[in-house]
Write a structure and sequence with these properties.
Layout: E1 5-8, E2 13-14, E3 19-21, E4 24-29, E5 35-41, E6 44-50, E7 56-60, E8 68-78, E9 84-86, E10 90-95, E11 101-107, E12 112-113, E13 124-129, H1 136-142, H2 159-174, H3 178-203, E14 208-209, E15 216-220, H4 221-225, H5 229-244, H6 252-261, E16 269-273, E17 277-282, E18 285-290, E19 308-309, E20 314-317, E21 323-330, E22 344-348, H7 349-352, E23 357-359, E24 366-367, E25 376-377, H8 378-384, E26 397-399, E27 405-408, E28 412-413, E29 426-433
Parallel strand pairs: 3-10
Antiparallel strand pairs: 1-2, 1-4, 4-7, 5-6, 5-8, 8-9, 8-10, 11-12, 11-13, 14-15, 15-18, 16-17, 17-18, 19-23, 20-21, 21-29, 22-29, 23-26, 24-25, 26-27, 27-28
Amino acid sequence: MKRMLFFDSYGNTILTDSTVTGYVGFRGYASGSDVEVHIYSDGEELAHAQVDYDGRWEAWSNFMLKPGDYTVTAKARDWNSGMEVESEPYYAEITDVTPPTVYGVRDQWGDWTTVHDASLVGPMMLGGSAGPNMRIEVYLKIRDIAFCLDKTNNEKKYLRNKIRLELLPLLEEYNPQIKSSLNETCRLLRDDEDYLGRQVDKIFTQGRVERDELEHSAYKVDFIRSQHPAMQKRLIRQAILEVKGDLRSISVRHVSDILNLFNISTDGKEIHLPGGLRAVCSGGLLSISKNPYMNDILTSKEDGRYPALVNVPGWTDIGSSGLRLNARLVFRETISSFSDRPNRAYLDYDKTGAQIKVRFFRPGDRFIPLGMEGSKKLKSFFIDEKVPQNERKSVPVLTSQDDDIIWVYEKRIGENYRVTDKTRRILLVEGVSDL
């Protein structure tokens, strides 16, 4: 067993005989990939890890170590030969845990306040800081501080809970260190994103063409094309952000559609974006502006009270929004994924029927989102999905003949219309922006 390293929950890698805090990581090397390492102190197992193919191993302690002095040994066990090798003892001092800090409160509208005893309405969220691997409830138990848990954290009807309660434990059977690996990957991606964001800030103004018009920006197509593909996408997102003010509802597909405009020979082609924006490629410039027609999506003969029929099969224009719906029956064998794009919905045709209608949000709308058991107000769903209030009335809603919501476009299909093993006919409805 080669030299072992300690590292703490703040990401600091430390040689042995050093001071670390809270959850403790252990890292080292061993020979062979069929070797498992167990870390002990005074006969109690602190952590265990499977050795990687290159001989490296890494493990976090199974629990938050209390303050004190520890004599630590590592045992490596080769499952093929049954041989065990024990390391020399290492010594570490565990100090007291740094308390987590609360720095503000956020209400359901996204506003933060750091003022004590401030008045807030509705659901609230606390924000603060702590070590990335610190379990707050463990700290509270050590300090004998009373706390309560949200009972919905254990309800598996929510996707986030199914991932935490079912998927992660299953993955841990294959890789016991999956959580620490995912945390490390997130840290690496966060660093990459920070660096690329800074690079975009440096070069963004070089490709921008100054305009006096409000809510209208223009950018040199050749400049964007000259950048690495990763930078191209970020430059376009930054251009949208400058006009829209946020990137809510802007997906990878929207960015890809704008990049595809560069390859169309005819000038003046445009696409429509969420939030009442349009992107036009003409004269070597990409222009992003507020669409003056998006404030009145429906034609004069249409409004939210009078839904239009969707052509099944066939194409359906959604008023003057620039969006078209294409509905057609497909074979199960041709589908690689039922959630590959937000602008596609795979539905059980025997449940939807051919009389499908499209309209927009109406007060009092309710539906059962995919993955849930009970119904939910569409307004509450929009709030949870962080859809801005001024955009909610422009989201197409597909309904059955009885006005039961089938699909909230690009957001979620209804649970009752999902494709199951018993589905005989599958209907694909796909939204396409005008090019």
